[in-house]
Amino acid sequence: MTMTNISGPETPAIVAEDVRKAERTDRIVGTVQRQGALAVLIVVLVIALASFPNFRSFDNAATILVAAAPPMLIALGMTFVIITGGIDLSVGSLYVLGGVLAAWASQYGILAAFLLPLAVCGAIGLANGLLIAYTRMAPFIVTLAALLGARGLMRAISSEGSNTYLVQSDALRKLGNGSFLDIGYQVWLVAALVVIGMVVLARTRFGSSIYAVGGSEDAASLMGVPVRRTKVWVYVLSGLLAGLAGAINAAKLGSGVTVLGTGMELDAIAAVVIGGTLLTGGAGTIAGTIAGVLLLGVIQNLINQVGNLNSNWQQVISGTFLALVVVAQTYLVRLRRVT
Amino acid sequence: MALLEVADVSKIFPGVRALDSVSFTLQPGEVHALVGENGAGKSTLIKVLTGVYQPDGGELRYQDQPAQFGTPMDAQRAGISTIYQEVNLVPLMTVAQNLFLGREPRNSFGMIDRGRMDREAREVLAGYGVTTDVRRQLGTLALGAQQMVALARAVMIDAKVVIMDEPTSSLEPREVQTLFGVIRDLHAKGIGIIYVSHRLDELYEICDAVTILRDGKLVHTGKLAELERIKLVSLMLGRDMAEVRREGATAFSGEGTGDESAAPVLRVRELNSRHKLHDVTFDVRPGEVVGLGGLLGAGRSETIKAIGGAYHLDSGEIEVDGKELKKPTPVRAVKAGIAVQPEDRKAEGIVPGLSVRENIALAVLPRVSRGGFVSDSKIDEIVDRYMKRLRIKASSPDQAVGDLSGGNQQKVLLARLLATDPKVLLLDEPTRGIDVGAKAEVQSLIDELAGEGLGVVLVSSDAEELVEGSDRVVVLRDGVVVGTLTGTEVTTEDLMSTIATEAHREH
């Protein structure tokens, strides 16, 4: 509360010490923000390994990963969207629509089974992006409309959801249930896409633009960042990834199940935020999102292990986690600002 | 050959001629000061130069070619960089990312070369006296350092013109010197600089030429060294030095109502706020109108807000009626008897969608409610009293305030302030944007209120209004009280010469 540093020379040593201290705090806080979910994941894993014998098997680990593959894809797209400061509520609907489309199109071969859901979900993502970027409508409303529209479309092509298309392509079924090194194909596919996503986000100009748009849209446009183009692309990516997630899930189940995906968008948002991405945009990592998705997956798995627990408890626990993370993040961001 | 030139440029907004055939020329290697008070048209001119606004008339020439910038990006690509008063970078990204955003060095795979980017960022910033870790988030840096990063970025994109809008407003003295060093370098390289600031000492230290705008019109342009300070101030404020003081140009009575012997109703001691206020001290006695004089950015509004608890103070004492106001917040200030009329009535004062009655009642709700329930009849009584007292012209108390004229909106705001039973009234630009007749009414109301024993602090950019409305004028410059005018000294001439006095450099 004193004013010593307004006028009069300061001793450089004190300044340097102050700067060092500020930089150290900044580094620590930054690390906690980025790696918090990973740390919690490790703690949960250690506890689980120690107390649940059934958890401690390779098969169980592979099961967790296979189950986490579609949510991971959706959360990957959501990470891009949330870093730009947006939100995509349509992904749960696109996921189930993608599954139904893939199962139907599988009669024309495995290629069609992937291309059709990608084309339709990508197009819906494009529509979302164009509306959000060019008419400046709120992402929440635009993608809520897409959520309702895509779910309606899915119900229309499946006779009110009663018509379940079976996967006709053996290749597709094999992709959904086969494995390489005892780990499901879809896990490898998702892993590859995640790595590409990380490189795009961290090492390309498009990635920088995503952070800049979310960090400060006005500043970004003054600095020459193609704000609108960036926004359109993240929603296209989100749509494509949701459609792909639906397709690989159909491959695993062998049919286009129509009763899935409700609330999936909220799980994805939860995973992304637990992973340290700021809901207000501008900061976040895919590594954090991976930790977030796995954390939710492991908790689900553990609750199944306990057996006599109602699986709804998983949502109670996820909800609690989410609340804690948001509180911690708010605090950390403030701490960083002050220094 | 002129680097950047506008000829007879006009810009019209609904109801306002923001620029009225203004001409302006920037030579290569010139540091050109652009000055004027609020509403003079500086920002509009800058926005026309940088492609934010399209001019409604006149011509823009850049490097001797007719030019048209459709967007800020067009201007930037052509080599016109702007550093805004508010740092326009992305706080959550690293320093290096901010410096290189959109121009990141890439390796042969098209990937951003982080190592090279950080290294180059460090080298560039060292030249600006910034030696921080470039991988830190920009937002964690001090404002001064952020400003330097913005400047470095602006210069890096092969700028031929750099526009600086109050670049020193958040800098510390030694950072200002670093900035001036950079400006001298740019000047030597032949880059043209447009420098907007209200700190006269800075202008005379760094600028070659000056252009003065007032009310959207060009009033002077030429070499700065040839222009006396007092002349510069009088041109900005629009008063001829030789002009004799006219009595009664405003509706103030001109008679002092303060009682010299009375104990001050407001005592302000050594208010300090980083960069903005330094040891601001003054008293207001009951019935006295104390004016705060000075140019834009001198700390007048900050002082008023600080007393009202709405501006951060690092230290200082405020006493109302002999009682100390500890840790001022807006709620505590109101309780202590301080009423503040903010500068921007639309943004901070009235609620346009609510009715006259509701707006006035906002302030008195705590007083007329019991156990959370509001007494309608008490509100009606208060609203009725003030509508009559301040002669508010509204069809009924239920008319929306947004539909009233500016003058009546201001009166509603005053009514709301008075309804809290204040001891001190702080008025920031009470007559801005209202028509002449309403102005006179508001002015005589201020006089009346002081006559009833209120202590009034008045801020006005209208020198005449300030001088005629105030019993005393405390003159601020760069957040420091540089003089107090009392008695016969309360004249526009004395005000201007006090503002223009050269500051003593203390560092």
TrEMBL record, chain B:
From the record, what ranges are coiled-coil? none
Q: Which Gene3D superfamilies match?
A: P-loop containing nucleotide triphosphate hydrolases (3.40.50.300)
Q: Which domain of life is it from?
A: Bacteria
Query: InterPro entries given for it?
Result: AAA+_ATPase, ABC_carbohydrate_import_ATPase, ABC_transporter-like_ATP-bd, ABC_transporter-like_CS, P-loop_NTPase
Q: Name one GO molecular function term.
A: ATP binding
Please give the CDD domains that the UniProt record associates with this protein: ABC_Carb_Monos_I, ABC_Carb_Monos_II
Recorded hits in PROSITE patterns, A to Z, give: ABC_TRANSPORTER_1, ABC_TRANSPORTER_2
The ABC transporter domain, residue ranges: 4-240, 260-503
Record's keyword annotation contains Manganese? no
Which keywords appear in this protein's UniProt record, sorted alphabetically?
ATP-binding, Nucleotide-binding, Repeat, Transport
Family matches, as PANTHER family: CARBOHYDRATE TRANSPORT ATP-BINDING PROTEIN MG119-RELATED, GALACTOFURANOSE TRANSPORTER ATP-BINDING PROTEIN YTFR
**Name of the molecule in the record:** Sugar ABC transporter ATP-binding protein
Q: Which organism is it from?
A: Paractinoplanes bogorensis
